[in-house]
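DM between two lab members

TW: hey, do you still have the WD repeat-containing protein 41 entry open?
JB: yeah, one sec
JB: this one, 205 aa:
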Amino acid sequence: MQACEHNFWDPFPQLDTQQEIKLCQKPNDISIHHLTWDEENVFVAVGRGLYVYNLQMKRVIACQKTAHDSRVQHIAKLPNRQLISCSEDGSVRIWELREKQQIAAEPVPTGFFNMWGFGRVNKQASQPVKKQQENATSCLLELIGDLIGHSSSVEMFLYFEDHGLVTCSADHLIILWKNGDRESGLRSLKLFQKLEENGDLYLAA
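TW: and the structure you got?
JB:
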């Protein structure tokens, strides 16, 4: 072990809100259920939310505190800065990490990811770092797809780039999801190939 941090919340909480956090937050809301990563970011499922930690900036760059109505069970990184998550509420959602110029937005919490020892600063350096974070380019997780088909907790899913997404649930169903635009293009391509083989394409021209 190289570093450890047991405090999920901001390392410098306000005194008037610390007691409220202890009373209102349930242990399940701050439990880490799953994580994945790529060359730039670490994606973490915490309670019902999703957090994105940038390895170069050493801070949280985006989060969705209520990505689902219940606990997030599993997440996976897709190409094109996309992320898939499934939940106990039976939903499967697709997110896209998009850049956003953070001018007067609400600050993104960073305390949780200090468990790796990243982003920890002393009191003398806290102000310059805070100003630098405010001026930095942040991101947001935008919901771009909601797959509705299960009636109970979605336990797991597998993503295949050429074949689609497979989800399994406590409702005893296994569903194969396809990209509609991609499949439509493949069907059109096969149709033109069939017409070309039969010579009908040249007759129509």
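TW: got it. The radius of gyration is 22 Å. Helices lie at 15-24, 123-135, 180-198, 200-204.
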